[in-house]
Amino acid sequence: MHQLTLSEMSKMLKSKTxxxxxxxxxxxxxIEKYDKKINSFVTVCPESALNAAKHADQLLSTHQSHHPLxxxxxxxxxxxxxxxxxxxxCSKMLAEYIAPYDATCVERLKTAGMIMLGKTNxxxxxxxxxxxxxxxxxxxxxxxxxxxxGGSSGGSAAxxxxxxxxxxxxxxxxxxxxxxxAYCGITGIKPSYGRISRWGMTAFASSLDQAGPMARxxxxxxxxxxxxxGHDPKDATSLNAPVPQYSEHLNDPINNLRIxxxxxxFTKDLDPNIQDVLNQVIEQFKHMGMNVQxxxxxxxxxxxxxxxxxxxxxxxxxxxxxxxxxxxxxxxHPENIEDLYMRTRDEAFGDEVKRRIIVxxxxxxxxxxxxxxxxxxxxRALIKHDFDRAFDQVDLIFAPTSPTTAFKVxxxxxxxxxxxxxxxxxxxANLASLPALTAPAGFSNGLPVGFQLIAPxxxxxxxLQVTHQLQCITDAHQHHPTLSNFEE
Length: 488
What we know:
Amidase signature (AS) enzymes; 15 helices
């Protein structure tokens, strides 16, 4: 049953082949059975999940028209506020924090009738590319436990890949949905900035953060995205734009679509085995009647340094609220207010969070602001302009998601620069506020390889259409890891 899509589960529920309660029990038992070694969940909520499932069954029994997601389980990244349930951002700072309200996208999925099973593991405050900075320990890749699941939404990706839950939410600041989706062999989409409300989502870098769905297929992501999206008056950055019914237009014709291959992304930095897998996807696109051409994004090579100036700058401001006074961790027996601030933040923040706060504070300092932050904003505008020019020539951009498959646990943890380069192909879409999707392309040495598609602003429909129609004629998304050795 864990290999079914959301639409298949929906049909089962409506035909009474199984109940939401049975479905919820099934996934809770899989979490109990397999997650001790994967560590994809940091909080599981069996009681509230089963209560919600019983309510969903009552609604399903009325034979009225219901939302297609009614009664289907989901899990949320631990960055989203969930009323009455711990929302820790996988940090010691918030390890005991119980949110008093639901994030907007959590509320919308709950209103649709989805059943929350729990909260998924992540890099602390979403800062990381491997899910190794979590206060609750790393999340392991279900395809090979010696390898990382990717970050920061590693728990969300691993849980879907392992069949512990059919869908999850994630967030993407510089690739944090797409990178773990590629490493774990699932589909994930980062919509245009502002498409999904950020209200109730713990902020990392406010001008870059975006929530999005993670699931097995583009069809599943379409169902989730159309439910999560929409204007929210509680979020000043929320777009007041119509939300298409993405799932109803997945089979619309896409003949003669123009696909661009950025020459800056297909270089010697890309693993040749990954290049081979991606070439197979490119050939499939050609068979589907698409026109493939080379394009240039001349400032793309600046995305990583610009991202790691702007993101830490915003993080240092956003994390200033965690001071040990209003909520969260507080050190024992502080001598004075300065000692309270210093020891609380030193004891409760992990090394990667401290590193980014220090970098961010430095680039915002009066002596560095013009040299670093202001210049980075100008180059960000150039990166966006490159995309604007590219989309005058093509309809979509095809790219790798990562230069390698999932690396081994611990391999890059003490080498921040090498870790940051994992995001070399993903940060540009965030800097330009563009929608981007990752889906399975195939395998290299037994580990999943993901491809990335980037579209013009608010063109999520096109990303989902192309990926869905590709998945109708290929099977990379249908493979599942073997979990028989994961039982305790």
